[in-house]
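Hi R.,

Quick one: here's the HAAAP family serine/threonine permease sequence you asked about.
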Amino acid sequence: MNDQANSVDARYEAAAPAELSSWNRHDTTWMLGLFGTAIGAGTLFLPINAGLGGFWPLVILALLAFPMTFFAHRGLTRFVLSGREGADITEVVEQHFGIKAGALITLLYFFAIFPILLIYSVGLTNTVASFLEHQLHITPPPRALLSFVLILGLLAVVRCGEQAIVKAMSLMVYPFIVALLFLAVYLIPHWNGGILTTASQVPAPSALLHTLWLAIPVMVFSFNHSPIISAFAVDQKRRYGANAEQRSSQILCRAHLLMVVMVLFFVFSCVLTLSPEQLAEAKAQNLSILSYLANHFSNPAIAFAAPLIAFVAISKSFLGHYIGASEGLKGLIVKSGKRPGAKALDRIVAAFMLVVCWIVATLNPSILGMIEAVGGPVIAAILFLMPMYAIRKVPAMARYRGQASNVFVTLVGLVAISAVIYSLTA
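And here's the predicted structure, written out as tokens:
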């Protein structure tokens, strides 16, 4: 097996320089797919959560946004690339750390991502039902029927294969980017200083550090696209072989620059429009920034566009998280000793996802936010700490040792995990 993998890598190494000479459509599709997984419904709450801390914490978070997200996801990509040809994250963990560790990480990986998929199922159903009722003035169908049709529609895209998922997500990114830009520009005439009123109030160092400590997880998880990183790395290694790390880093860099510029422009436009008191009111009402702005301006265009933007945001994030959740479930099934064929395994996973997502979306439980919060530390550990540990312990990753970014990623991971646990227990 190793000889075969080495011959494949050698073949790619010979061909890769020509392929790396120019950016291609495949790279653009993945760049937008990464953007699509990361930038979803959470972006619509980010201006509220990030803006409440005041001007200076927001500025510091804006400066940290790119290095926090890029270095962490690059580390996880490098970790998956360090495995044998075609191995996903669950197989790479087993390869480097043993069968027991592989089974544990696979279990944690699945239960960290799958609840987010359930949350998106509920959010999608609520968004469409509200849109039909309030904007189109149509009585929505029974919740069980509506949720089934919506989830089945998304799984129809899933059944077309991983490349179809990434392509669908990349296509949905375009209207989302246009919508964010439109809203951010639309708000410019309404800028009234907003958060700038707090700029003259420089917080004490202890208060500033406390605010940043609690705000970092918000920023980290708003740009998180770890569920699709494994599939991304596997595809890059299949396509670029020995030069996969170089091209992966280029794609990640461009994807994160797009994320940071787009989202921060949207965030600052919102917080410059609304006062800190209004941001607090939006948080108390548990509204997304779009819903609050629609009510604030009584603007029919925003009221109509908000649910459509949310629909696109949730749909593309659902597809991206499905890749990670299905990967984890397949790993659990295989590690349990059962080894069905590839097509049978795909059908089993798709059927399980459909049934569970449909039931949860129909029941519309209120505990999903807590489940997501519990999964937060696990995602942070897998995204930030596991690759850094592997760099120190795994010979295949030894060439990445001694980089300052490793220390930075480790510190951010520890801060994010401790802050999430503190928020849950406080």
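The two ends are 51 Å apart (CA to CA).

Cheers,
M.
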